[in-house]
Structures are given as C-alpha cells and as structure tokens.
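Problem 12. The chain below contains 154 residues. Write out its predicted structure in token notation.
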Amino acid sequence: MKIKSQRDFWSGLMFVVVGVGFAWGATEYSFGASARPGPGYFPFGLGVFLALLGGLVLFKALTLESEGGDPIGAIAWRPLLVIVATIVVFGLALPRLGLACTLPLVITLSSLAGHEFRWRDVLISSVVLTVGSWALFIKGLSLTIPLWPLYFQG
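Solution.
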C-alpha cells in the first residue's frame, strides 16, 4: 500500500487517534438518553465523528494520487507553542479573572500566532466572542463560570 499524499495521511491519522481517544475517554462518563443526554453523550459522538472524518481523509491519502506526494513541510513551531501556551493561560486565568477578562486576553494571545495582527480585528473578535460566550454558556446553559475577576465578586 503506497501513501499518495503524506499530508492527508498524517492529518487523517491524527484525526483518527484524537477521535478514538475522545470517544474512549467519554465512556467513563454517563451517556444518559437521547432525550436527556449525560456528560459523555456529546464527547463520544464528537469523537466518533472525528475518527470517521479521519478515516475518510486516510482513505483519500491512500487512494487518490496527488502531485509530488504532497509532502509535509517544516513544523511551524511558533504558532504551535503560542496556541498551547494560550490554552494553558485560559485554564489558569478563567477561575481567577472570569470570562469577561480571560477571553479578550486569550484572543489577543492566540492572534499573535499568525503573521497578520490587527488590533481592530482583535478588539472586534474579543467583544463578539465574549458577549456570545456569556450569552451561550452563562445565560443560555446556566453554567457556573465566573464572569468577573475574583476581586470584583464580594
């Protein structure tokens, strides 16, 4: 069996591994029922979907010819490290700074991973995503996520 697209092969393999990992991890939680899903229902379905999507990409990599074998380029270390660091900052900052301060911070930090940084775009994204997250997670789903920093909450 010959790999006809290296890029698709490794991408598909990554999707399959991550999807199977999420689906397997979700089996530790209660599934509930379709009418009243438990905490494992959505991650399991998403993991299975991701693994199936990866399988399709793998199939494409092994069956469809691509120009020059579609080789993988160099690893983009800066964006990779910036995004991983931003995820760590989110996990550490959310309980202390609240959603209203953490999301703009995380959006600003993650935008540094790209080559095109514009303050106007970062500010618009920060406002839209913060208000949307507040509406969805705090108001809509009634999750107990702090909105403001600890020192604002008496």
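Discussion. The chain has two domains: 6-69, 77-152. Students who got a different answer should revisit the alignment rule from Section 12.3.
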